[in-house]
Write a structure and sequence with these properties.
The complex is a heterodimer.
Chain A (H helix, E strand, L loop, with lengths): L2 E5 L2 E5 L7 H8 L18 E4 L2 E4 L12 E3 L1 H4 L7 H8 L9 H14 L5 H7 L10 H17 L1
Helix pairs in contact in A: 3-6
Chain B lengths: L5 H17 L1 H7 L17 E3 L5 E5 L8 H13 L6 E5 L16 H28 L7 E3 L2 E3 L5 E3 H4 L33 H6 L14 E6 L7 E4 L2 H5 L4 E7 L2 E6 L2 H14 L1 E3 L10 H7 L3 E8 L8 E9 L11 E7 L2 E6 L4 H12 L6 E5 L13 H11 L6 E4 L2 H7 L6 E9 L5 E10 L51 E8 L15 H19 L3 H6 L5 H14 L11 E9 L6 E11 L4 E12 L6 H21 L4 E2 L2 E2 L17 E6 L15 H16 L10 H8 L1
Parallel strand pairs in B: 2-3, 7-17, 15-16, 19-20, 23-26
Antiparallel strand pairs in B: 1-2, 4-5, 5-6, 7-10, 8-11, 9-10, 12-20, 13-18, 14-15, 14-17, 18-19, 21-22, 22-23, 24-25
Helix pairs in contact in B: 3-4, 13-17, 16-17
Classes of the chains: A alpha+beta, B alpha+beta.
């Protein structure tokens, strides 16, 4: 059984059952590291990706339901040499300790900035309420998102 | 039996003596003491190699847990070698390549590995200069080094790369070459950016979960429904018939499955869980009885501090008991490991805090020589102590043994992690004090009760790996022991730093308990500091004194005083401020382990008396960690320690029901979320003349006490049981 899906602008065919959660296909078939396994229960947000503009939990989305939807992962935002404004801001603010949750933070923030380019601090905190961080990096993460918003707003 | 003649006996003994004199233990006893971990890893080339391209490869036994240690160690190495930071390549935690520095824990890495690297790199630089001096025919003292290039008067230069072939670091360190004076530091003391962050924010290969080996297959384990349960039966045929399933592995009560694809392994695990039948298991307390249960267990009792003086007549007696529940490490990424058995050699990739101790236990369970096992560290999600990180590698090894030649990746599921990580143990702390008419504490009596905090692998006897106790031929559990003082385990920070004329501190250490527990960030330090600092506020209130003035009247150490005064100044603390029923502020202080970083916190609190919900909008902190290696890294550690401590203090408690762990996911074990995270401000006090100290655990206890004291200040009611749940708050406010 092969399923076709669109990820970061390319179409892929993967040898997985339609009920396979998107997360495992991204990680194992497409070798994308961004989305992380955290709970498999859509509770922690470590696996967040963007599907057609909305931040979703890839651990709980079966690939069979995606159809022609566009999936964007952390890798689809930018690269280490050409980072996205959010990725750059997370580096500038040194907004990570272990960094395991950061994929979800950046992807949820991306969806926020796409619909609200000038969020307040409270907007950012609310938008990231479903993304758990265990190291206590919360304030740096919020600062990084606000910095990215400011920089994107300027250009 | 043939009796040995004296000559034969001596000849035999001769051999023994020769062998013995080569043993590291005896060599160590005879050799001079070397700084930091050089003491136990004495060869320079164990730490440093200079490469032909002019870079340096620097090895450390300590590992990155998200605390930024690898960047800080690279800064130290670059500083002493006079190399740009970009030319230092770090290798960490590999039994095949790095020094054995035990476990990365206890905020010890800067003191142990950092000190070793300071001296080893300073010595390596001196050796490089000697070689260059010979080449130039110049005196070593006339040469200068910058950015990996040695210059002689007259403009001649030679690079480290050009000298690499002549440089022989296969020699024992002397510890005699002094590291740079702090005034000369160019890289140490700067906020160098973390080396690991760019990959982590762009989807690079940053974590153990990102390792994909050729031919790799996916494993999952099926844990018992409760501690100590035995596997009676399961339906192997059903699981084997599922798509992609390669093998079901059972050894005693250990049950695992390997499949081609990850989702297939997850499916097979679920099917096996459904059919598995288990018997027996340990009796556990219900959540509401955990403290009675703890106090009912057999304890080893020791008096760890005693000072006697007459208690003045008319002294007021105060008494209080504090409690902290079982707390989960709750790593965001559940434990993961990879293992491959090939040609009789086992290779394990792990995010264990100690690859060498892990290898010692793996060797026992797998019945292999340690030399045939290589454990390689790769980063996991932050662990904050001994999580399931050490247990997943054995799971992977047991599955890999059944499938030689194929690498097996085991990823624990969320309920595996919550159900089978060793929790931070519950503790009970009781304080009694006599308050003199002079407003000072005349006598202090402190007792704490706690399970073990240090059940890590690598002990001499037995093993401390979960699956090893479940096998058909089980390993005995390592006898549990308390982490010894002065750092301490259950009694970490139990001896007050304050000076009282008379005091007694008693540790009740419960070595055997039915709940699987181990080290969580600070060990007993969090609960002991919470109790001591809460009680200091209670005593100050009884004495009619400001909590800060009251503390300062009992502490002489100038570094402690400066940290306390700095924090309250930064926070805008006003003596005599009154809480208004909803808002208040509180203070907490500790010197971590009573021998390392000083940290003071002021927390502000908001209490909603209707809902019982508590928020901590702001925490201000001051820190003295000695010589600062990386100020931003230090601030990040303190911020994280505070925010995590606020989460523990307000929300966290592992629940038990019907002899099982009931907290199995984030809905049943809520933690602090983004909207409720406090703003944190940190002021650093740099001590260039003092040794650098780790700070990963410095803030946890002070932050908790500051929150509890702020609650009492706001409401006039004291909560002594953690966490400060709405139920407890409403009950306290009546």
């Amino acid at each position: 059984m092969a399923v076709r899906l669109k990820v970061n602008g390319s179409t892929h065919s993967v040898p997985a059952e339609p009920d396979t959660p998107l997360l495992y296909v991204l990680r194992n078939d497409l070798a994308l590291n961004g989305a992380k396994f955290g709970c498999g229960l859509a509770q922690c947000g470590a696996c967040t990706v963007i599907v057609d503009g909305t931040a979703v939990r890839s651990c709980s989305i079966p690939i069979g339901g995606l159809g022609n939807a566009e999936v964007t992962t952390l890798e689809g935002l930018g690269t280490i040499d050409r980072p996205h404004a959010l990725q750059r801001a997370f580096i500038e603010e040194q907004a990570a300790q272990c960094g395991y949750c950061i994929n979800g933070m950046i992807m949820s923030a991306k969806a926020l900035l796409d619909r609200n380019p000038r969020p307040s601090e409270a907007d950012v905190r609310e938008a990231l309420a479903g993304n758990l961080c265990r190291c206590g990096t919360h304030n740096r993460i919020v600062r990084a998102v606000l910095r990215a918003a400011k920089e994107t707003g300027r250009t | 039996m043939v009796a040995l003649t004296r000559r034969q006996f001596s000849a035999g003994l001769g051999g023994v003596v020769v062998a013995f004199s080569l043993s590291p233990r005896l060599a160590l006893a005879q050799a001079e003491r070397l700084p930091g971990s050089l003491q136990t890893n004495r060869m320079l080339d164990a730490w440093i190699r200079i490469n032909a391209d002019g870079s340096a490869t620097v090895c450390t036994g300590k590992v990155e847990l998200g605390q930024g240690i690898i960047t800080a160690l690279a800064q130290i190495a670059a500083e002493e070698l006079d190399l740009p930071l970009a030319k230092v390549v770090m290798i960490s935690g590999d039994t095949g390549r790095t020094p054995d520095e035990g476990v990365t824990s206890g905020s010890n890495s800067l003191e142990q590995s950092g000190t070793a690297l300071r001296f080893a790199c300073a010595e390596a630089r001196a050796i490089v200069i000697e070689i260059a001096a010979k080449r130039f025919g110049a005196e070593a003292r006339t040469l200068t080094v910058a950015d990996g290039v040695v210059s002689a008067p007259g403009g001649r230069t030679v690079s480290y790369g050009q000298l690499a072939a002549e440089l022989d670091l296969k020699r024992e360190a002397t510890g005699k070459v002094a590291p740079k004076a702090s005034a000369a530091h160019k890289i140490v003391g700067t906020a160098a950016r973390r080396l690991d962050i760019p990959a982590k924010v762009t989807g690079g290969e940053a974590f153990i979960q990102d390792i994909r080996l050729a031919g790799m297959v996916h494993g999952r384990v099926v844990r018992p429904p409760r501690y100590g349960a035995k596997l009676e039966s399961f339906d192997e045929t059903e699981a084997r018939a599922l798509p992609g399933v390669i093998m079901v592995v059972r050894d005693g009560s250990f049950l695992g499955v390997v499949a081609e694809r990850e989702e297939q392994a997850i499916r097979a695990r679920f099917v096996l869980m459904t059919s598995a039948r288990w018997s027996g298991g340990s009796a556990l307390p219900e959540t509401k009885n955990i403290y009675e249960h703890l106090l009912s267990l057999a304890a080893q009792v020791s008096v760890i501090s005693e000072k006697k003086a007459a208690i003045p007549d008319g002294a007021r007696r105060l008494e209080a008991t504090y409690r902290r529940p079982y707390v989960a490490h709750g790593a965001i990424g559940p434990s993961c490991a990879l293992a491959e058995l090939k040609d009789g050699k086992l290779t394990v990739w792990t995010h264990s805090q100690g690859v060498f101790p892990l290898r010692r236990d793996l060797a026992k369970v797998m019945k292999m020589e340690q030399a045939s096992i290589r454990c390689i560290f790769a980063e996991g999600a932050g662990c904050y102590g001994r999580s399931g990180a050490d247990d997943a590698p054995l799971d992977a090894a047991l599955l890999a043994r059944a499938l030689p030649g194929r690498p097996v990746r085991v990823q624990w599921m969320r309920d595996d992690e919550f159900g089978w990580e060793p929790f931070g143990p519950a503790m009970v702390m009781q304080v009694k004090a006599a308050l003199g008419a002079d407003g000072r504490i005349a006598d202090w009596q402190y007792e704490e009760w706690s399970g073990p905090h240090g059940t890590r692998p690598g002990e001499k006897e037995g093993t401390n790996l979960f699956a090893s106790w479940e096998l058909a031929e089980p390993q005995p559990r390592s006898p549990s022991r308390n982490v010894p003082l002065p750092a301490g385990g259950s009694h970490r920070n139990a001896i007050p730093l304050y000076e009282f004329p008379s005091q007694r501190v008693i540790d009740h250490f419960v070595p055997v308990m039915p709940i699987w527990v181990s080290s969580l960030r600070t060990l007993g330090g969090y609960a002991n500091v919470f109790a001591i600092e809460s009680f200091m506020d209670e005593a100050a209130l009884a004495a009619g004194a400001d909590p800060i003035a009251f503390r300062l009247a009992h502490v002489k150490d100038p570094r402690a005083r400066e940290v306390i005064e700095t924090a309250v100044r930064k926070a805008g603390w006003k003596e005599g401020d009154k809480g208004d029923g909803r808002r208040g502020r509180g203070f907490g202080f500790a010197k971590y382990k009573n021998l390392a970083t000083y940290c003071a916190c002021v927390a502000e609190i908001e209490v909603d008396p209707m809902s019982g919900k508590v928020r901590v909008p702001r925490v201000v902190s001051a820190v003295d960690a000695g010589l600062i290696i990386n100020p931003d890294g230090l601030v990040n550690q303190i911020e994280g320690g505070i925010v995590q401590s606020v989460s523990w203090t307000l929300y966290e408690e592992v629940r038990f029901e019907q002899n099982r762990v009931a907290s199995r996911d984030w809905a049943q074990y809520p933690i602090l979320t983004m909207p409720n995270a406090p703003q944190v401000e940190v002021e650093l006090i740099n001590r260039p003349g003092e040794k650098p100290m780790g700070a990963g655990e410095a803030a946890s206890g002070p932050a908790a006490a500051a929150v509890a004291n702020a609650f009492a200040h706001a409401t006039g009611k004291r909560l002594r049981d953690l966490p400060l749940t709405p139920t407890r708050v409403k009950a306290a406010l009546g």
